[in-house]
Amino acid sequence: MAKNKTLVLHSRPEGMLREENFQVVEREVPAVKQGQFLVRVHFASLDPGIRNLLAESSGYWVPTSLGEPLNTNMVGEVVESQHTDYRPGDLVAGTGALQEYTVFTPGPMTWKIDSGSRLPLSNHLSILGATGLTAYFGLLDVGKPVAGETVLVSAAAGAVGSAVGQIAKIRGCRVVGIAGGEEKCRRVIEEFGFDAAIDYRNKDMAQLMTAIGEHCPNGVDIYFENVGGIQLDAALGHMNSGGRVPCCGMISQYNGEGGAAMHNLFNIVAKTLRVEGFLCHTYSEQFPEALRDLEQWVAAGQLNHREHIEEGITAAPGVFVKLFTGENQGKTLVKVLSD
Ligand SMILES: NC(=O)c1ccc[n+]([C@@H]2O[C@H](COP(=O)([O-])OP(=O)(O)OC[C@H]3O[C@@H](n4cnc5c(N)ncnc54)[C@H](OP(=O)(O)O)[C@@H]3O)[C@@H](O)[C@H]2O)c1
Questions:
Q1: Rg of the Cα trace of the chain?
Q2: Which atom of ligand 1 is least distant from the CA of 160?
């Protein structure tokens, strides 16, 4: 166990993230302290939000130092433990340094995975992990959908967005997605059951406003925000009075671009909107109940999802970049040491 492939930050990205910003190095397997346990990592998640931790200051969580590993959510098997609740052989989800053998210090995103779960382990990082939980709480707790309302979702073909749309359908809403390109728009309707999809690529603000108006003739009651920039601005222009805007992420701005001038902000006042940011981990006490619902919906065929999995930590830099070019085709994971 001496060699332990680890993904570290090699240089701070300026503008668009590049593969060269990362390096895969070999580190010692970390020592396990009291209250921690060592995990053989099977799958690691690459989340767009990690991009915000690569700057010198993030306004978010603690930024990653140069030469230090990226922190992310992972699933794997406990191989050594100094924690009374976790035993070798347990399957776990948690957060730690992205390496083959990593230490988890239990926190809000750490839990044991039922070894009887019939779903693949990778699902506990995607639809039954932070992705599904983010969609669940962002839509149901922040958005508070009511049957018959219109829900507009950005990055709708992506991991969180596709789940948001399907949960909104389960709640009886009319759902419209915004996604990049014809293929993803087709997927949003045919695979994820949205009522309509808008291809935002090659559309300016005026064209996006027109497209949303055409597809949401009764206005928008909930705009689930994953992207920011002109998509947020155009959506605000179509909100109904008393509308809600759960702010999940703003991926168009993570690479320092997309800070469009906003034209429709006054609608927040005029339409008495509630625009509210949220972070998934703050709901950790309610995770068990949410995971039960999500698992039931998956089993009933009401909640489809895709995983984009590439092999090995060495693939991680390239896969991470794909999140920002739209080349990822579902929840973006690397398979680390699973058999
Ligand atoms: N608040 C929380 O607790 C929380 C937790 C998890 C994730 N999030 C946020 O949720 C959002 C979605 O994350 P995810 O993991 O589900 O990723 P994802 O949607 O599976 O992948 C990201 C997608 O974003 C779109 N995109 C990338 N750059 C863009 C740009 N410049 N303009 C417009 N669209 C762009 C691309 O889709 P197209 O090909 O359609 O453009 C890409 O496929 C992100 O904003 C993320 O930060 C928040």
A1: 20
A2: 16
149 and 197 share one domain: yes
* Ligand 1 in reach of 99 Cβ (< 6 A): no
Domain count across the chain: 2
Distance 234 CA to ligand 1 centre (A): 18
How far is 192 from 179, CA to CA, in rounded Å?
12
pLDDT value of position 257: 74
Give the strands of the sheet with 174-179, arranged side by side.
Answer: 196-199, 174-179, 150-153, 220-224, 239-247, 274-277
pLDDT of residue 56: 86
Identify whether residues 158 and 24 lie together within a single domain. Answer: no
User: Which stretches of the chain drop beneath a pLDDT of 50?
Assistant: none
- Is residue 211 included in any domain, yes or no? yes
Instruction: Give domain status of residue 291, yes or no.
Output: no
Same domain, 134 and 249: yes
pLDDT at 256: 85
Handedness of CA 28, 49, 323, 78 (dihedral sign): positive
pLDDT of res. 258: 61
Range of the domain at 176: 130-280
Nearest ligand 1 atom to the CA of 281 is 3
**Which of 58, 160, 191, 279, when mutated, tests ligand 1's pocket best, judged by the most ligand atoms within 8 Å of its CB?**
160
My answer on whether 121 and 229 are in the same domain is no
pLDDT at residue 283, rounded to an integer? 97
Q: How far apart are CA 62 and CA 265, in angstroms?
A: 30
Q: What is the pLDDT of residue 139?
A: 98
- The CATH number for 177's domain is 3.40.50.720
Contact 227 CB / ligand 1 (< 6 Å):
yes
Q: Is residue 112 part of a domain?
A: yes
Q: Tell me: the pLDDT tens digits for 171-192?
A: 999 999 999 999 999 999 999 9
Coil/strand/helix, residue 247: strand
User: Which pLDDT does position 250 carry in this prediction?
Assistant: 95
